[in-house]
# Entry
Amino acid sequence: MKRWGLLLGLSLFSVSLLANTSATELLPEVKKLMDIKPINDPQMAQNAYVYLMAIDAVDDDYFEVGKKVIEHDNQLVRQSIKDGSLTSIENNTNNPLYHYKKLELAMKVNDEGDWYRYFCKDLYKRQCIQATLYNASQLDALYKKNKILLARYNTLIKQPFYYNNYSPLTPYSPMANYALLINISSLYQAKALEIIAQGDVTTGLAMLQQQQSFYKRMLASEASLIDKFMGMHLLLIQYHTIADLFDHLSPDILMSHELTDLLKPLTSQEQQAMVSLLEREFSIQLTYYQTINKEDVKQMMEESFDEAFYINEYTGNIYYNQTLTMNAAYEQMLPLMNLAKITLPDARANYPVLQKYQLDRTCDKSDTIGACFIKAKYRYGENFIGGMFLEQSFNHKEYFFRLYDLSNYLALVNAKLLIKQQQINVQEIPAFLESLGDKAKNPYTLVPFTWDARSATLSTERFEPVREYAEERPTTFDVYIEATKPKKP
# Structure
């Protein structure tokens, strides 16, 4: 058995529920999430996710290829839930449906094999548009090489829907072409910038708007964590690109709705993106709990502990109560789910709550394995295995911070737009920012943005915490503000 790395739990443990070994029925809410039906979706032909699944298929009918992959995975997941085992999925990983012939993404720019670099993907790259358009012939060559994929991407982003709720993910589920999406979207964005630089600003901004609407559908969709994060990531790149674009546009364009529409605050539905994300993560967690059987538990115990411990503990009738574990996991989800429904301005009170939020764990980091298991056995009783699964739950609060960062960065970019629209001289920026009030503050903490005249940057502190194992990265978001040219007398 290939062990999952997705032991995802959500919030405060329900001690009474875990200890109540008389519970035999799944909660209605849990049953609803586990009721995975065969796909009967009349809107499937308008769902961009289906197009993305096999966008790189050699077959001209790439939508149909992606549709078959999704339908097959749905069938396997339903069978696995029915069987209480992942065997049916595990045995299908070599299915030809998942290994279709693919178009090659052509991103090499020289004989040495160097890949094209889209400079605006770096949120801290100053004058990224100038760097992007510096080698126009290189870009033109990439457009031609990726003509088919760009045309398909153009079709994909025009679809009115984006959702990925056909079945919970498993370790063997096929993944949509997210890496390809990032690269193709970069080429599409570069093309829009090139068109703007050539003087057709209306067409270029319309292309950016089309793309951004797609990103927001990803963000607000019923989809998986990776879909949401991809939407957030691509929107950050888009906002960074637009912020740099301000320095290349005339005053009338800076005031136009074609531009300002690109910088509207996130809607309530977009701010509530965490709601469907948590539901989706919970359905993944439930699928895991429901497909773990006695033999799986036995193997995990054998792999995790020495023989003496295994003999004493596993043969001592340590029990995994599937129903109790799934019901407890649902109760864990509720506190964060309620927080996820809160939008600005009420969400300002949400931030300090999330900062202090911690999972209720039985074991401390300093505990030895033996000490941890003594505590866990005392707390979870007969449902020891289920309790240990929940002990390993992942704290989803950092996902909130990523979403908060999106609105935070957007507010920063909008502050730059106001500075450029009013043609504020750099010496006047501090006073102008003060006059903007809350428009020049972090929308969640109301901490004012910081102006650094020496580096010509406007900054706000990032929410997203740096994980111990993550690469070091800046703790602030910055936008560069090019000096405004003197006004004509």
Summary: Residues 1-22 have pLDDT under 50 and may be disordered. Residues 397-421 form the longest helix (25 residues). Residues 8 and 141 are 44 Å apart (CA to CA). The radius of gyration is 25 Å.
